[in-house]
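Problem: given the chain below (128 residues), write out its structure.
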Amino acid sequence: METKVILDTGVIFDFFVDGDYADNIEKLLKEKRAVLSAITLFELFNGVTNKKHIEDRKNFVSLCDVYSLTADIALQASNLYTSLKKSGKTIQNEDILIAATAIYYNLPILTDNQKHFSLVKNIKLISN
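Solution.
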């Protein structure tokens, strides 16, 4: 079986508008290789009130594995944050938590945000 892939929030939004990542994500969904961090779940639903958008997102999430935020992942994220801060680089806490999830499970991230995620050592990034 091929490796599962963590989907970053930006590529999921791209999928909903049939953008550049849509084909790649559709393939991952069909192969049951799509993974979401619980943090991505938070980002997907944060502030959404439109019933159709909520339903679309629920349907999408039902096709993915969702990995919870664990104590080990939170500690990994805090180490990443500290390391980035020491080097004078910062990225959003949500991205740090998603990156920590990828590192913990040793999975690549499909992202349209190469700039931020490339600052984190020891993760594999997939772009289109």
